[in-house]
Amino acid sequence: MIALPKLIPTTVWNSLSLAIARGDAPRAQEIVEDHRLDVNACVDSSAWMPVLMEALLSYGFATEDDRLPLLHYLLDEGANPNIICARGYNCLHIAAQQEKYIHALDLFLDYDADVNIGDADGSNIVYWAVQGWLLRREGADRATYLRVLDKILHLGADLDQENRFGMNTRKWLQLASPDVQELVQRWEAAKPVIHDVTTVQPVFPNLRYPELVRHIWDQFVPADGGPADTVQGELLRTVENLRDEARRIANSHQHATTTLQAVAGATHRRVQKRQAIFVRDTLLRSGVFDKTESHRIRTETQRLIKHSRDYPSDEVYDDLVDMICVFYTRNPTPIPL
């Protein structure tokens, strides 16, 4: 199966985006229900931002209290606040960094929050929560902030998790106010269990035409992943099969230890070589590509053909998938195999 995060269809997203932008929570909910949308799908293929994040960041809500019902609805429908966007952060990271989102953060923590997920720099939720205390003013909401911080800690926060700058929460605690330090000390005195990260994050492709890739896959590749009966479908299926096999072998670190395994491995590589040649020859013989594009196709497929083991870099497969999309745009009518 092609490894693409789900995208909300463009036609549906236009109306949903407008409802969220206007702060019209009932209308947004109605669209989700009418179209049975996956609430963890992404709104576009640039930032790959999930719907929950779009609702959190919308300027359309007059107050944060007005925003909460839509967030609550999406969470109840299965939206996962732990899912990152392509820029490397999730809803928890955003809410922990901005004071106005304290009640949204409180809500997210009730939905299986994976508090030790690092953002793009490796900073977890408690890092941002404690650092924020150094800048937050004294005020009526202080009790709320302390309660939310306590909630984060009891979800198994790791105070020693370092980001890429070598900073962690414990270092910020040295500068924190006494009430924050006392709260953390009481929590640590109970010898809490630090929770490992369990969320499986989406893999964001480096593709120029992700929506088109999904369309070709859905229209031309059989649901069971078997051979396609069109050139367009079989080209995409073949490249994704090559990608999947490369990942499988790279992840399992398989090495032949017996003669039988060595023979099986050699046979498998011959099959992969034939598949790569099929992709190369089909694309080049189509006459669709200019000299520069043809050179790229030859270069990328040659890296698959010549390599003695599976080539694990996604860049090779992404380039070939992009070329298949170009081929499809110039040959949209199904070509029987």
What does this structure look like?
- Pfam families: Ank_2.
- Keywords: ANK repeat.
- This is Ankyrin repeat domain-containing protein.
- The longest helix has 27 residues.
- Helix content is 56%, strand content 0%.
- The radius of gyration is 25 Å and the shape is elongated.
- The chain has 15 helices and no strands.
- It is mainly alpha-helical.
- The strand count comes to 0
Radius of gyration: 25 Å
Count, helices: 15
Q: Name the poorly predicted regions.
A: none
The computed structural class is mainly alpha
Helical content stands at 55-70%
Mean pLDDT: 89
Summarize the biggest pleated sheet: none
Write down the secondary-structure element order. HHHHHHHHHHHHHHH
**What percent strand?**
under 5%
Give the overall form. Answer: elongated
Q: Give the termini separation.
A: 21 Å
Salient structural properties:
single chain, 337 residues, mainly alpha
Please give a quick description of this structure.
Keywords: ANK repeat. With 337 residues, this protein is an all-alpha fold.
Fold topology:
Layout: H1 10-21, H2 25-34, H3 51-57, H4 64-76, H5 91-97, H6 102-108, H7 125-133, H8 142-154, H9 169-173, H10 178-189, H11 210-220, H12 231-252, H13 259-285, H14 291-306, H15 314-330
Helix pairs in contact: 1-2, 2-4, 3-4, 4-6, 5-6, 5-7, 8-10, 11-12, 12-13, 12-15, 13-14, 14-15
